[in-house]
Design goal:
There is one protein chain. This protein folds into 3 domains: 4-65, no CATH class; 87-153; 157-275, no CATH class. 34% of the residues lie in helices and 15% in strands. The chain contains 10 helices and 10 strands. 38% of the residues are buried.
Amino acid sequence: MGEVVRPEDEANLHRVHPNLRDLPTMVWADYVHPRTATAFRNADVQYVDKAGNASVHFGAVYIDVQGKPRPDSVSKGSRVTGGLFAAKKAQVIFALLAWPELVHRSMREIAEAAGVSPALVHDTLALMRISGYDDHEGNLQASKLLDHWAAAYATTLGPQLEIQRYVGDIASLEDISLSGQILVGGETAVPDLLKPTTGTLYVAAFDHAIAVRRRWRTDGDWNIFVRRKFWREPQGLGSPAYVGNRVPWPLVYADLLSSGDPRLREVAEQLKSEHVETS
């Protein structure tokens, strides 16, 4: 699979070998970067590289080797800048997942919704097509794209959105978004499916006086996460990506998966089943 692999390379396997779609995926490469390894594990893609890193499981056997450095004999390779799931391109993918009708709009409209430049939208769409995430008629392979985007989110886009972490009373979040300036994600966005133990907020700009008034602290085991709202809701599309004060549902899905909590993964899969055709 080339010397250095990216999360989107798994899609290329399925595009070249459609009969592999229903079988476990194994990636062999000279070197799998640690961030890519995390994305592969989150997407349940097994891998082995020449450095000795591996994630393999069958029956009762589970092999997980991490941290082996890139061998000197392996070049960094000529990869498209950042790969398909790098932070800025991930913003484009998010917008397309949240508002699927956007894929048939102009690159400028997609760029405005994603908070990036039209040139970056062009590059992202080209990589998606090469990687087999659309059917070459502009229709997204949404289920696979969502899984790989969400798997990479925790190590690419997610960290770049973080503004601050706090320790505070989760109950203090119940009325925080009534003004419409603050949207909720993660567990906070699905209180009908579980009892939230953490709170995730998305804001265009955060007034730290809010934290002071609600007696949030920055020390201890964080349970409130404030992140940057990078997108702009497109106008004139038929299906809203979220209701009320919630962030668009793909972001809720990614927040839940990135926790690593099996309980939240189950809720995430339920959320996906409500929005994505998986057959």
